[in-house]
Amino acid sequence: MPPLPETLLAWLDEGTDQGVYVLSRGKLEYANAAFQAVLDEDALDLAEFVGRSRILPEHGEASARQPTGDEKAPLRLPSQPVRLAARDGAVHRLVAQEWLIRSRDGALIVGCISPPTDTADSDHALLRVALYDALTGLPNRSLLEDRLFQAIARVRRNGKLAALLYADLDGFKPVNDRHGHQAGDLVLQTVSGRMLACVRETDTVARIGGDEFAIVLEQPEHVSQVRLVAKKLIASVGEPIELPSGAAVCVSCSIGISLCPTNGMNLRALMNAADQAMYLSKNQGSGQFRVSAESAVAVEPLEWMDEHEAGSIGVAEIDRQHEELIAMANRLHHAIDNSESYAVQSSLLDHLISFAQFHFASEEALMDRYDDPGAEAHKRQHAQLIAQVLFFRHALSNSDSQMILSALRPWLIRHIRSCDRELGIFLQAQGVR
């Protein structure tokens, strides 16, 4: 089984109380802390659970080592009792919800153990890591971009206002240096709570980097209201924070603000304007904010993703396929945004998955032809990406369309910007254009 990303491991071990596990070839390949607390204490229960046969839908009983059925999407296996757990004198029944996922590295069973009433939550447990910051619980950059896109769409429809605020903490590094990373984590969590208290429930506060935050304000009445929120954020963040050691620390924040439609009507224009305004405010000193003076560019078609986000890798065949993948993602977004039928949405996602597999195969053929030294790692990431998008496909069947969109952007863009860009550099050095 390919190694799991460190951010995913950290969240699975600390960010959820559900038991999450991965089985491969009849062996327990991964189990988070919550799973170990339930089953690792009893070796017999663990051996029985891992070794039992799984019931595959429409195919009767079969071993997890010999999966059969639809190769396109993961199979959702029937819920099954795990064991009776006696806690505080009471008996609680646990259930396991599992999915059979096929990848180039073989079949995997990914599962969640939880009380029966938490079955719906288990459907979201593995997907949530793609959308939320593990430390603060705030939306991450992926979900922020989706919320901002929705805010822009509403501005286009109703002609009102939206605002994006970039906030960068001042004085955070000395906290880590003097008091340790646990103190730094506490500061970030405290700041997150204070920022949430300064905005409405309809607004979005996200953590987009180490000590960087972003806020989307939905339909403020006037620019003066945006300025008032910025002042409240600066005042609240600047209040002393008491550490468990008894010491008190202070941080402040610098804020850059962009306005829709004043500074633009697309993601990149608003993000760039807010980022530039934030750095100008930092140059004025800590605890300042600045509204961007950038002029709005001509109104562009509202595309959820465009090829400029990923950039060209300089190999015509691969660049054309990237453009097609992004076009497919935009068509899927349009279908979900316009509440088209599940049949239409699932067909578009199936088409995207099929083309992604073709695209990965095309890249791998080029890696093999030119003996790319990074081929093994790149192919492993392809396998992981296909497994992830198949999980997105499962989520779509459970009406999590918007979550799929938010997870699909980094799935595609980050891979192109990292592995594919490195492949492009290698292939161009071999004379491939």
UniProtKB/TrEMBL annotation:
Q: Which residues form a coiled coil?
A: none
Q: Which CDD domains does its entry note?
A: GGDEF, Hemerythrin
Q: Which domain of life is it from?
A: Bacteria
| Gene3D superfamilies for the chain | 3.30.70.270, Hemerythrin-like (1.20.120.50)
**What SMART domains does the annotation carry?**
GGDEF (SM00267)
Kindly indicate whether the keyword Zinc belongs to this entry: no
Q: Where is the GGDEF domain?
A: 160-294
For this protein, the record's SUPFAM superfamilies field holds: Hemerythrin-like, Nucleotide cyclase
- Keywords, ordered alphabetically: Iron, Metal-binding
GO MF terms on file?
Answer: catalytic activity; metal ion binding
The entry assigns this protein to a family as follows:
Belongs to the hemerythrin family.
* Record protein name field: Bacteriohemerythrin
Q: Which organism is it from?
A: Candidatus Methylophosphatis roskildensis
- What lineage does UniProt assign to this protein's organism? Bacteria, Pseudomonadati, Pseudomonadota, Betaproteobacteria, Nitrosomonadales
